[in-house]
Design a protein that fits this description.
About 45% of the residues lie in helices and about 0% in strands. By secondary structure, it is an all-alpha fold.
Length: about 80
Amino acid sequence: MSAPDTNTDKQEKEHRPSLLGIRGAMIFGALMMIGLIGFNMINAGDGDAVSNADAEGSSSTVVDTDVYAPGTNSSSTPTQTD
């Protein structure tokens, strides 16, 4: 059922502050996104400032990996350490 007395002019007038707040939040969000994109573009540079390579070239780190299949145990019991 619809409301018996719908005065759209009165409702528009009463909801104006809420609608302005929503519109302001959307504009603020858009400006923040534009600012974030602009900040990233300005600070992107040519990559020299963010390089992890030293003067001799890049270095790599070797990570130890397990040599047995997951879910299996070795045949020997580990020794207890003090």
